[in-house]
Amino acid sequence: MASTSTPAKNRPNPAASLIAGAFAGSIEGFVTYPTEFIKTRSQFRSPTATGKPPGPIHILKTTLAKDGLGGLYSGCSALVIGNGLKAGVRFFSYEKFKKALVDQDGKLTGPRSLLAGLGAGMCEAVLAVTPSETIKTKLVNEAMKPNPRFTGLVQGTREIIKMEGIGGIYRGLFPV
């Protein structure tokens, strides 16, 4: 079985991993957000006069005509913060799991590395993915309404928790 060893002085600082992951995830979220926006909008759209739901090009054209380029970034803060949080949690927890799983020689075997990745993915799902995706989806859906209740990420999150409790941002974590 192959194992890897990283001298202690070359191991990344967990805080540096958290910051690097958060920064990278935030940039990725901002750059890719318009496609996420169109995908999410298409999930909420009702059929057009032809009886078919509008496609991505129709959603893009309609959004640009109605709201301009900024319209494609409606709800973006939720995804940017969520992606930053997800990547930060993943990088940080992976480093912590790796540190806990090294053998007595300071080496991390393939199976143990797999376990570290599994643990990091579970932490990411519970602490970041579910709440950020739930909030983002609710913000995008609410923005389509004539009188949206949510004016932004912080206010929207507070309203969701006020109306539905903390479980409102964890909707979908467990099967119903």
UniProtKB/TrEMBL annotation:
GO MF, one annotated term: citrate secondary active transmembrane transporter activity
Solcar repeat start and end residues: 12-100, 111-176
Keywords: Membrane, Mitochondrion, Repeat, Transmembrane, Transmembrane helix, Transport
Primary location class: mitochondrion
A GO cellular-component term linked to this record: mitochondrial membrane
Protein localization: Mitochondrion membrane
InterPro entries: MCP_dom_sf, MCP_transmembrane, TXTP-like
A Gene Ontology biological process term: mitochondrial citrate transmembrane transport
Membrane-topology descriptor: Multi-pass membrane protein
Domain of life: Eukaryota
Membership in a protein family: Belongs to the mitochondrial carrier (TC 2.A.29) family.
Identification of the protein by name: Uncharacterized protein
Biological source species: Puccinia coronata f. sp. avenae
